[in-house]
Design brief:
- The protein is α/β, with parallel strands linked by helices.
- It has two domains: 248 residues, Alpha-Beta Complex (Spore Coat Polysaccharide Biosynthesis Protein SpsA, Chain A); 39 residues.
- 43% of the residues lie in helices and 21% in strands.
- Strands 1, 2, 3, 4, 5, 6, 7, 8, 9 and 10 form a ten-stranded mixed β-sheet that branches.
- A hairpin with a 5-residue loop joins β6 and β7.
- The relative contact order is 0.14.
Length: 291
């Protein structure tokens, strides 16, 4: 059996992190759990103490940014397979069991579908819509290059040796509010750099990870504060670094980008229509029941 570690980086989210920790503890696959806290000034230490020897609590007094915390937790881990659960997210109990079962020698990483949830935990949407199974690494690299943002490591597993190599502390020429130490771009490169060393990846269509959509998260916060353009620019800079490396795929042409954008927005529109029709059907059904 492969050994596994779940790394939970955290900063001042004592009110949320317990859910991430408990979802890690409740995994059906045995895992080392590392809660890595860089500089929290709330009662995160008390929350960590509650779990006693069920987790390893790594505490640093200084906050040097998300990516330093991620890297510290990674370096503290001992498992062959690693997963990052962010402190405002959580996992379904079978996440590690089902993903590790798919990580064959020629597979670079495994990722799953995601439920996007609001504060009350009601599901608002399912994030990734594509067929389950094994795919060519070149295809997922192409998708990651053309998408404006990235797949989150919060729904993926990697080999520890690959993460140590590919989770960069800083991307050359990073700048702006999502520049140095933010983790924006480094998360994308964890996938792209790993893709250079393997021919295949696996996607599991079942949503086994849950992401909380709230103003404190990076993606939602960027939208709510009008900084989404800065977020996209940081990912663009990460892609430019990837293109400079041997073995990377070629940058897409303007026409390819246009076709990808049309396809993405068409799928998004159809998804919204489907969700609306489903709600209408539910309302009609409940109305008939009352009648």
């Amino acid at each position: 059996m492969k050994t596994a570690s779940i790394i939970i980086p955290t900063f001042n989210r004592a009110d949320l992190v317990h859910r991430a920790v408990e979802s890690a503890i409740n995994q059906t696959y045995p895992c080392e759990i590392i809660l890595c806290d860089h500089g929290s000034t709330d009662n995160t230490p008390e929350v960590a103490a509650h779990y006693k020897d069920k987790i390893r609590y790594v505490r640093r007094e200084e906050d040097r940014g998300p990516i330093v915390c991620w890297r510290d937790g990674l370096e503290q881990s001992t498992g062959e397979i690693i997963h990052f659960t962010y402190d405002d997210d959580w996992l379904e109990p079978t996440f590690m069991e089902k993903t590790i079962a798919k990580l064959d020698d020629d597979i670079g990483f495994v990722y799953t579908n995601v439920n996007m949830c609001c504060q009350n935990r009601n599901i608002t949407s399912i994030l990734y819509r594509r067929p389950s199974g094994i795919g060519r690494m070149k295809d997922i690299a192409k998708y990651l290059i053309q998408a404006p943002l990235t797949i989150s490591p919060g729904c993926a597993i990697f080999r520890r040796k690959d993460a140590l190599k590919n989770l960069l502390l800083q991307i050359p020429n990073s700048k702006g509010i999502y520049g140095k130490d933010s983790g924006v771009g480094e998360d994308l490169l964890l996938f792209l750099l790993t893709s250079l060393d393997y021919p295949k990846y696996v996607y599991i269509k079942e949503p086994l990870a849950c992401f909380l959509y709230h103003s404190g998260s990076i993606t939602a916060g960027a939208r709510l504060t009008g900084n989404r353009r800065d977020l996209v620019d940081s990912y663009t800079n990460a892609k430019l670094y990837y293109f400079s490396l041997p073995g990377s795929i070629s940058p897409p042409t303007s026409l390819q980008n246009l076709l990808f954008t049309i396809k993405r927005w068409t799928l998004l529109f159809l998804t919204r229509v489907f969700q609306l029709l489903k709600k209408i059907k539910t309302v009609i059904y409940k109305g008939k029941e009352r009648a």
